[in-house]
From TrEMBL:
UniProt cross-references to Pfam families, sorted A to Z: zf-C3HC4_2, zf-TRAF
Annotated GO CC locations: cell cortex; lipid droplet
Zn finger intervals (TRAF-type): 115-164
Keyword Metal-binding: yes
Listed name of the protein: E3 ubiquitin-protein ligase TRAF6
Location in the cell: Cytoplasm, Cell cortex; Lipid droplet
Organism: Exaiptasia diaphana
GO MF annotation list: tumor necrosis factor receptor binding; ubiquitin protein ligase activity; zinc ion binding
Ranges for domain RING-type: 32-71
Length: 281
């Protein structure tokens, strides 16, 4: 075991103790006297002191064979892995590394920390395409709208636009085709308005027939209140689909507007709010 300590090429100046936010703070016997951080791969000396494995090995190689605490003669062969201290360290409570900086509320054991960081929305990860560092919660938006190595479709692909390219090229395509895209959106909104009007006509006919029946049984259209209710229910799925599509169009409009000119390009579809409200009712 000690020979492994002597021969391990990983013992370099790059590794120190565990610099995490422990709560409560670590007791002194779990703090390395050399780096003043939590014990990482703790070892114990023959004279009873604990150190981070790499810290003490590096010190012995650089400063001579003696314990830095009490100057007792010490060599690498006199270091022993402290498995008890290692288990204890793993059970101590820590905050997420991004608790203070970015507001992550997670708190758990040191052993659980790395697993949390893989899922933490505030943890910085690497975009698999462009290798830029972004937080987990930003990654989806980054890949959809920012990453220069990501291929995407034009936001109006569902309306027939065939453009598919890297994000910077799609943004250029959007900027150079604003007029035609707006024309397509206006056309789609008008078509939706016609569909909404056509869907609403049967319901209005039923309502008018029912009202006529209340005034005169001879002029009653034959629709009962139950039939009116049934027709209304049958129309609801179609109206819901139209409403959802109207909402998607609205989202695409806002997105297109923001992409082209960062919010300074303002345009308006006549009676758009009224048309959307009619689809929702």
């Amino acid at each position: 075991m000690n020979r492994l300590l002597n021969d391990d090429p990983r013992v370099t100046a790059s590794t120190e103790g565990i610099d995490e936010h422990f709560d409560p703070a670590l007791e002194s016997n779990y703090v390395c006297p050399i780096c003043l951080l939590g014990l990482r791969e703790p070892v114990q000396t023959q004279c009873g002191h604990r150190f981070c494995r790499n810290c003490i090995v590096r010190l012995l190689r650089d400063a001579g064979n003696k314990c830095p605490v009490d100057d007792v003669p010490l060599s690498e062969s006199g270091l022993y892995p402290d498995n008890f201290a290692k288990r204890e360290m793993g059970m101590f409570t820590v905050w997420c590394r991004y608790h203070k900086e970015r507001g992550c509320p997670w708190k758990g054991t040191l052993n659980e920390l790395e697993s949390h960081h893989k899922e933490c929305p505030k943890f910085k990860t690497t975009c698999p395409k462009c290798k830029e560092k972004v937080t987990n919660e930003e990654l989806a938006n980054h890949r959809e709208k920012v990453c220069p190595k990501e291929r995407i479709k034009c936001p109006l692909h569902f309306m027939g636009c065939k453009e598919e390219n890297f994000i910077p090229e799609v943004n250029k395509h959007i900027a150079s085709n604003v007029a035609s895209h707006i024309h397509d959106i206006v056309k789609a909104v008008k078509e939706l308005q016609i569909k909404v009007d056509n869907q609403a006509k049967p319901t209005k006919a039923v309502e008018e027939g029912a009202r006529g029946g209340q005034k005169s049984s001879a002029g009653y259209s034959g629709y009962s209140e139950d039939r009116l209710f049934e027709n209304t229910i049958l129309l609801q799925p179609d109206l819901k689909r139209l409403s959802d599509r109207m909402t998607r169009l609205e989202t695409r409009v806002i997105d297109l507007e923001g992409r082209v000119s960062n919010g300074t390009f303002i345009w308006k579809i006549d009676n758009y709010d009224q048309n959307r409200a009619r689809a929702l009712n």
